[in-house]
Amino acid sequence: MSQYYPQQSPFYPPERPEDDYIYDEDDYEIEEDDGGGPGGSLLQRSLIFLTGGCLVFLCMICCGLSLVGLWTLDPTAVFVPTPIPGSDLGLSFDEPAFPDESVVSEQQVKLTLKEVNRNAALANVPAVEGRELIIVTIELVNLGEADADFNERDFLLLNSFEEAYQPLAGADVGEGALGRGTLPPGEGLEGRLTFEVIAGERDLVLTWESSGGSRYIFLE
User: In 203-220, which positions are buried (b, 16+ CB within 10 angstroms) versus exposed (e)?
Assistant: First the structure.
């Protein structure tokens, strides 16, 4: 007895995909919304540029307001004046200014060494064996806008052990002594300081004790 076999399709059996087939995203293209074409892209860029400009402008305004506030509270916090040359010299005994350098005090008075005379002799100061006179000629100039007081007693001569010699009184050393007084703004003067020290002592430093701090100048 014969059996009936239906006619099979030419595509039967169906093809099986390759076992080593790997899905590749590049096989599919995804359409992205470009915002309606070139016009939309230009609008987005304009909005981004405008937003960035507004942020920069707001930051500039905030900075300006901060500076105004600081200036109102403390003008020196915003505008720092340029330091006067010499105001940062000779601030300590260990780092004195050199003899050819000028120092400036907190009151804006400039001190300059003009001359150092060792083994000096004065008619009204008797000589003492083992000791010598040192005459230091200085110049003071008032760089400030107010009167500045000066006094020869504000000066000391220190040796390497920081032992201090005081100047002889102006009345004892005669004419030209620094003495004491007031120096008007923009004016200057020269005066002599006389010290009696151990003969031959070296590494001497002139110390100027003024309001707001001390200044040190190495003599030699």
Answer: ebbbbbebeeebbbbbbe
Residue 170's H or E segment, with its range, is: helix 170-173
What is d(CA 17, CA 34) in angstroms, rounded to the nearest whole number? 36
- Retrieve residue 98's tokens: 């050199």
If you search the block for the tokens 């000779």, which residue do you land on?
90
pLDDT tens, residue by residue, 33-63? 555 555 567 777 777 767 776 777 777 776 6
Rounded distance between C-alpha atoms, residue 219 and residue 144, angstroms = 26
Q: What is the pTM of this model?
A: 0.62
- Look at the block and give the residue holding tokens 């399709």: 9
CATH number of 103-218: 2.60.40.1240
pLDDT by residue (tens digit) across 141-164?
999 999 999 999 999 999 999 999
| Structure token digits, residue 151 | 């006094």
Pairing state of beta strands 148-151 and 213-218? unpaired
Residue 30 Cα distances to 24, 33, 155, 182, 219, angstroms: 13, 10, 90, 91, 88
Phi, psi of 186 (to 5 degrees): 80, 0
Whether 187 contacts 142, CB under 8 Å: yes
